[in-house]
Amino acid sequence: MIINKQNMAEVDFEKSELIPAIVQDALTGVVLMQGFMNRDALEVTLDKRLVTFYSRSKSRLWTKGETSNNVLELVEVHTDCDKDSLLIYATAQGPTCHLGSESCFADTMPQLAFLGKLERVIAQRKNASPESSYTASLFAKDLSRSCQKVGEEGVEVALAAMKNDNEELLNESADLLYHLIVLLQRQGLTLSEVVNTLELRHK
């Protein structure tokens, strides 16, 4: 259930004034951290669109990144079936962990989450100077160039498979995925939308 300011009263704070709140990266699905929220923390989170917890050590509300500026920008809040714990989708501005890593659970990051990280980096380079990176130079060229690259890499993937060269197949597949993400970004589309299309076909 998605929680907003209109229905936040449905969250169950009766059993405990503090309930667990797990934060996930909205793009990659990586679990970033876990904290606790009371009713006020949830309300502030929804109002300011910045993830805010109740700090048990400070005995006060604490907005993640209030001193480091590594804030967690709110995307959505969900509750579980019992409505006594929260799952928060957010976009991290900088490392989440105080030790400097992306996640407080750094050693449990799922491998496929890298595709989301790559997509984010590619998106950030859309408006960068063409001289700053190969990716930025692709965005500076005509759409036809990105279309051509996807076509070329697709053919090279097929040729590598025909040669039964698995190392080349992996390398060419990586190139194809990269150029496909670039093309999707140029068209204002995301990998998540591709996954949604696959899910609809599966139903």
From TrEMBL:
Entry's localization field: Cytoplasm
First-tier enzyme category under EC: hydrolase
Superkingdom, natural source: Bacteria
Spans annotated as Phosphoribosyl-ATP pyrophosphohydrolase: 115-203
Catalytic activity: 1-(5-phospho-beta-D-ribosyl)-ATP + H2O = 1-(5-phospho-beta-D-ribosyl)-5'-AMP + diphosphate + H(+); 1-(5-phospho-beta-D-ribosyl)-5'-AMP + H2O = 1-(5-phospho-beta-D-ribosyl)-5-[(5-phospho-beta-D-ribosylamino)methylideneamino]imidazole-4-carboxamide
UniProt keyword annotation of Cytoplasm present: yes
InterPro entries per the UniProt record, alphabetical: His_synth_HisIE, HisE, PRib-ATP_PPHydrolase-like, PRib_AMP_CycHydrolase_dom, PRib_AMP_CycHydrolase_sf
Region named Phosphoribosyl-AMP cyclohydrolase: 1-114
GO biological process: L-histidine biosynthetic process
Gene Ontology CC: one annotated term: cytoplasm
Keywords, comma-separated and alphabetical: Amino-acid biosynthesis, ATP-binding, Cytoplasm, Histidine biosynthesis, Hydrolase, Multifunctional enzyme, Nucleotide-binding
Recorded GO MF terms: ATP binding; phosphoribosyl-AMP cyclohydrolase activity; phosphoribosyl-ATP diphosphatase activity
Record EC number: 3.5.4.19, 3.6.1.31
Pfam family, one: PRA-CH
Domain Phosphoribosyl-AMP cyclohydrolase per the UniProt entry, residue ranges: 33-105
Pathway(s) of this molecule: Amino-acid biosynthesis; L-histidine biosynthesis; L-histidine from 5-phospho-alpha-D-ribose 1-diphosphate: step 2/9; Amino-acid biosynthesis; L-histidine biosynthesis; L-histidine from 5-phospho-alpha-D-ribose 1-diphosphate: step 3/9
Similarity section: In the N-terminal section; belongs to the PRA-CH family. In the C-terminal section; belongs to the PRA-PH family.
Cross-referenced PANTHER family: HISTIDINE BIOSYNTHESIS BIFUNCTIONAL PROTEIN, HISTIDINE BIOSYNTHESIS BIFUNCTIONAL PROTEIN HISIE
The protein, known as: Histidine biosynthesis bifunctional protein HisIE
Gene, per the UniProt record: hisIE
